[in-house]
Amino acid sequence: MSAKILALDTATENCSVALLVNDLVYVRREVAPRDHTKKILPMVDEVLKEAGLSLNELDALAFGRGPGSFTGVRIGIGIAQGLAFGAELPMIGISTLQAMAQGSYRNMGATHVACAIDARMSEVYWGRFMRQEDGTWASVDDEAVIPPAVVADNSQTDDISWVTAGTGWDAYKESLDTVQFDIVTGNILYPDAEDIVVLAKFEFEKGNVETVEEASPVYLRDKVAWKKLPGRE
């Protein structure tokens, strides 16, 4: 199925837009931590103009649903909802952690990725992902916001080399370098719309879309579950 999907993400320092049209991807990105509201709509206009399309000609609008900066996530979903509402488009929310796994595959061919975004307050947004044969990703750990020392303390040795992704690995290097599994330093620091739009295509083909009213962010701050911790479910 050929799909025309616009994706945007402002959940971290990176501001990005991508438009998928017949397996071609038009991309704009810039690391601009305090200028997302100024940058994102011009980027949208640029990729649409480059592809010769209008919003009304698209099939869906995807967005980075989080986790990430509270303000950044809210900016992204708010703008995405406004665009989707005006063009009557279904929406697709994509995990920013999973997007970094896809970015690691795009850049390095990584199929096992350990993602950690600096969540401030001595915590990381954490998740590990394994690439499946169909190109989708399976979660190995539940996405969570968690102290990096807890990640290290509850890690287990396995026979897999995990490629790192995200700002958390540098921000909390002392703690995360003590994880029990083997790690390989990756080159992806931020989620990007180029990867979100690829993941959104899989969801669109499965019919996993939502209305503007149903679209919602994922902050993780209210989720403290870590399945491998004693006494937690």
From TrEMBL:
SUPFAM superfamilies: Actin-like ATPase domain. Residues 30-227 form the Gcp-like domain. GO terms for cellular component: cytosol. Pfam families: TsaD (PF00814). Transmembrane segments: none annotated. InterPro entries: ATPase_NBD (IPR043129), Gcp-like_dom (IPR000905), T6A_TsaB (IPR022496). Keywords: Cytoplasm, tRNA processing. It is found in: Cytoplasm. It comes from the Bacteria. GO terms for biological process: tRNA threonylcarbamoyladenosine modification. Belongs to the KAE1 / TsaD family. TsaB subfamily. This is tRNA threonylcarbamoyladenosine biosynthesis protein TsaB. It comes from Vibrio aquimaris.
